[in-house]
Each structure stands twice: as C-alpha cells, then as structure tokens.
Design goal:
about 400 residues; alpha+beta; 6-stranded mixed sheet; 5-stranded mixed sheet; 10 helices; 15 strands; about 20% strand; disordered N terminus
Amino acid sequence: MTSGGTIAVTPDNAVAVDRSAGVTAPAGFRAAGVIAGIKPAGTPDLTVVVNEGPHHAAAGVFTTNKVKAAPVLWSQQVLTAGKLKAVVLNSGGANACTGPEGFQDTHKTAEKLAEVLGVGAAEIGVCSTGLIGERLPMDKLLPGIDAAVKALGSEAEHGLAAATAVMTTDNVPKQAVLKHPDGWSIGGFAKGAGMCAPNMATMLSVITTDAVLDQPHLDHALRNAVGKTFNRLDVDGGTSTNDTVLLLSSGASGTTVTPEAFEAALTVLAADLVKQLQADAEGVTKHVSITVKGAATEAEAVAAAKIVAEDNLCKTAFFASDPNWGRIAMAVGNAPTAFDPQLLDITLNGAPICIAGGKGVDRSEADLSGLEIDVVIDLHAGPASATVLTTDLSHAYVEENSAYSS
C-alpha cells in the first residue's frame, strides 16, 4: 500500500475472478431484475442497478453502428456529465429505429426511475435489447420500474436477478466479481449471444466498482479495457444498434486505486465476461481463439484475426472439426494487413499445418474434435500480435436466427 491509501494491484495481491456474484458485490450498489411483462413469454425482462454513493462517477462505451438505438443516444447524452446514479435496462425490445417517439419513450423511462428514486433524469442511464423496429410497451415498462425498485437489494441473489432479466437469446446469465484483500472490488454482468462483433455488439454490460477513482481515469480505463476484451469478441460480424458498456463507481470502499491498477483489474474482469459471452453464443459448438502474431502493428493483427473470425467458410470448417487451413490462408489474404504469403505459418491446436505458405504436417495431426480450437497465424511481418475470440457457424445458429423475430 502506498501513501494516501492508494494500492497497486500486483500478481501477489490480485485474486481470481469469481462468477458467484456480480453488480451488487461492490459496496454501495443495489440491483433487481423483475418480470414487467415486456416479453410475451413472461420471463424476467427489466433490470435496475442503483449506485448509492457516496460517489457517482460513471463512464460508458457504445456501439459504433451509425444506426443507434434511442437508449444509446440518451445514455451518451447524459454521460457527458460523467456521472450516473442508476441504470434501467429492458430486454424484449431494442427501441431502435423507432424515431422521435422511441427517444421519448427512453426519456419517459429515465424520468420514471428518477422520480421513484428522487434523483434527476439526467443521472439515469437507459439500455434496451431485443427486436429492432418496434416501440416498447410503456404501459408495462413503467409499472415494472416501480416493481424493480421495490425489489432492490444488495445480496448476490439480487445481482443474479439483474443479470438474468437482460437476457434475450442467452441461455444463462453472465456475471463476475473480482475482489481484492485490500478492500475494493469490481463486479458486473453482461448479456449477448448473437449480432455480436463488439465495436461494441448486441451486448449490454453494467460494471460496478467501490474503488475511488476520478471520472477521467474511469473513462480511460474503461475504453482501454473494452478495446482489449469486448472488442476482441466476434461471433458473427454483426455490430448491433444497442451495444453499451457502463461503468459506475460508488467509492464506497474508501480506497483510492491507481489508474493503472484499476485498469488491469477491470481488464481481467471484462475478459472473464467476454469468455462467458463466447461460451453462450448462439448455436455454439466450438470455442475458437484466433491469434495473429508477427504483424507490423497491433491494429493489423486485430484486422487479420477478425477477418478469419467472420469468414463463413472458416466458421463452417470449425463446426465440422475440419483442419482446412486453406480457408484460413484465404481469409488472411483478404485482410488489410501487410505480409509475405511465402512466410505464412498456420498452427491448429498445436499442429503446424501450414509452413512458409505451403503444406506443413499432415492434416490428421490437427485434432479439432474437442470444444476448444486454437488458431495461431504467424505473418512474420513485425513484432505485434492480437487475439480474437469467435465461434463456429452451426445448424443451430442458422435455425435460431432464422426464427428470431417470429
């Protein structure tokens, strides 16, 4: 511990991520997830997370899609002040491509939660997820906020309920917490299973911390962590209209953490949430890790890895457990990445199946029959590397997405 109560996270005092809790694990937060009736199926569909302070610093990262949902526009606007006292999230409807009326619905949602909590609407973040192009049933959503506030709690079960109520095509809720023996922690949940190529994706995440950190450093840490984690997941190349990651700080631990230490811990937590998103992707039968090394720059390494992750021929080969390295070479050759094809190496699950741009060991040595597929592509063009996570393209993925809106 350094002077002024500031701590630095090191390998010696860092602890593992725990998935038994989420947004309510850090001090100063309450949450709830309830059934508001937004989803016809009658499953949980409304979440509220409240920051009880004493601090209310917040930051957010949002979709890069030009078509932004109304709650994204609202949350971007209110976060210009750098603080949030609460967030309300609904599943069962994206409130995207709904025009001025959709933005008014988002405004009414924020006003309702603000009224119930006794705060200002400009201190409320709003997130939505679900089918694009339909108005939200406000006659159900607004009373649902009353029910959610009544159900607020700080126990682990409340955090799990919050993580559950944001699910759409997800099969399981996704949450994690990282606690430190020095008395501060970070917790969060995420949802997302398809339309997932985060820059961001149809992916919502709320992360909470009781560490003391000023807003500019909070914002900087979030952007850096998202760049290394959420933006390195690519299920199907679809960047959604609603992607949002919100980070709220209560400061309730009273412990001031260095920006570097906080960013390191946040990145670990976010990476765990991303692994959970990958594991629950729509129709997933393979967890694929694509590492490009030997690139001239990290940006080029990411670009090359993502083009392999999004290539349908590669993804169907992964589904078939087929070590068809020619498809990978083809995809890398389409990337905006400089390299000499005669130096290209491709390794599948440890088998150097392509060496110097040609055939390496026999394909039979690359066993892809298990759940995990590790692809390593060496461009021999520089010192940079990057890893992107993806999944296969299965029958189940096609069936689920062909029936989504019905």
